[in-house]
Structures are given as C-alpha cells and as structure tokens.
Design brief:
With 230 residues, this protein is an all-beta fold. The chain has no helices and 18 strands. The strands form three sheets. Strands 1, 4, 5, 8, 13, 14, 15 and 17 form an eight-stranded antiparallel sheet that branches.
Length: 230
C-alpha cells in the first residue's frame, strides 16, 4: 500500500462512451459540511464523528487502524473460519433538511482482493449510503473492477492493494464520479432527494475474510448557500 495517502493516478478504464475528463471538471464546495481523517482518534476505538445508528447501521466491528502513518476506519478481520459481514457507519452530519443542490463527497479507500482467501472474487467493496429518515440507497458502489451508480456502471482496472481517491460530484440529481481524477460515472438521475444522512458500507464477496478493508479522508462539501438546516 502507498506510504502516503495521495490522489495518485492509476490505470482506470471505463466501459461506455464517457467523455475525456479529469479532476479539472469538478471543484469541491466552498463550505465543509463534514470532514474526518481519524487522526485524532485512538487506535482500536470507534470514531467519535461517526455512528452506527441509521438504516442497516452496524455489522462487523469497525475501529480505527493505522497504516503507513495514516489512520483509517477499518472493518476488523474476524478469526479464521468466521465470516466477515458487511459494516455500515454514518457520518454525524449537522441537522439537515437536504444537502445543498451542489455538493461533493470524497474519500480514500484501499481497493483490491483479500490476501486471506484464494477466491479472486473476494473484492473489497465500498458503498456510499444516502437517504432521508429511515431509508437509504446506494448512491455509488466501488471495487477495483467496477463502479456502480443508480442507473449506470463502468468496468475498471485499478491497481489492487492500493489507496485510491474517490470523488462524487452532485448537481441536483446529476451525479459524476471520479477515481484518481478520472471520470468513471456520469448519471443524470443518480441522486434522489432529499438527503439528510450519509453512510459508508464496507463489504466483501460472500462475507469472505478481508485484510485492509478500510477508508479515510472522508469529506463532504457544499457549494453556494450550503446545507439547509432543519
């Protein structure tokens, strides 16, 4: 894994007719709504800015881990022979009616296959769960081989076992997703409003044991007037 958590461009190939695009096509919002790199948390603790309360929250144990000088929220590896079920945690956002019309969600995640099993389909998977009230949907799902939004999907060829930067840029219902600065999804109807909670689901193929299923540098920013309070 990289020793520095930076947005390094790896090979990224998407199917379909996506236009040539780069990180210059989006800009982060001028208002930070939420940000956490877990740097202030104790190793082994559950982070204070997150909660397991929310639609399908909880699951496999989550705790802060350190890798190569950076801290991550890590789905703990169970004992050999045990399953590693999915885990979902929600960011403690300010009280909202909805996110701003234009917002971005960014995070770094380790992508690739488990080194603990022989099944090459045992990929690390990260789902952005968003919604309102007691409901949520997967706004974006990412592995090293594919990225899926509500209405589109693309195939990827990402360096496995590496940290990759994922950025989701939203304008009203229009969603664009970038990995390491390259456009991988363009979905005109990718977002359902309103959104008052954002979570991350960490999972693996058929609950197989995983190593380094974890993310960091999670940030939500809004453009313009910012989030609407309740």
């Amino acid at each position: 894994m990289n020793s520095k958590i930076i947005a390094v461009v790896f090979s990224c190939v998407a199917t379909g007719a996506l236009p040539a695009s780069s990180a210059a096509d989006f800009a982060t919002g001028d208002r930070v709504i939420f940000s956490d790199d877990f740097s202030q948390e104790e190793i082994g603790a559950f982070p204070r800015q997150w909660t397991l309360k929310g639609p399908d929250g909880g699951g496999n144990t989550l705790s802060v881990a350190s890798r190569n000088g950076s801290k991550f929220l890590f789905s703990e590896t169970p004992q050999e022979g045990a399953e590693q079920t999915s885990s979902t945690a929600y960011a403690r956002l300010p009280k909202l009616k909805d996110l701003p019309e234009r917002f971005t969600i960014e995070f770094d995640a380790v992508l690739g296959y488990s080194r603990l099993v022989t099944d090459l389909r045992a990929e690390k998977q990260y789902d952005l769960r968003v919604g309102t009230g007691d409901s949520s949907f997967s706004m974006l799902s990412v592995t090293s081989e594919r990225v899926i939004s509500r209405n589109t999907q693309s195939e990827l060829k990402l360096a496995v076992g590496q940290v990759h930067r994922v950025v989701v840029s939203v304008d009203a219902a229009f969603l664009k997703a970038y990995i390491d600065g390259q456009l991988v999804v363009s979905d005109p109807q990718g977002v359902v409003r309103p959104i008052d909670h954002i979570g991350m689901e960490l999972s693996t193929y058929k609950s197989t044991r995983q190593d380094d299923l974890m993310f960091t540098r999670f940030r939500v920013t809004g453009a313009g007037e910012g989030a609407m309070a309740r």
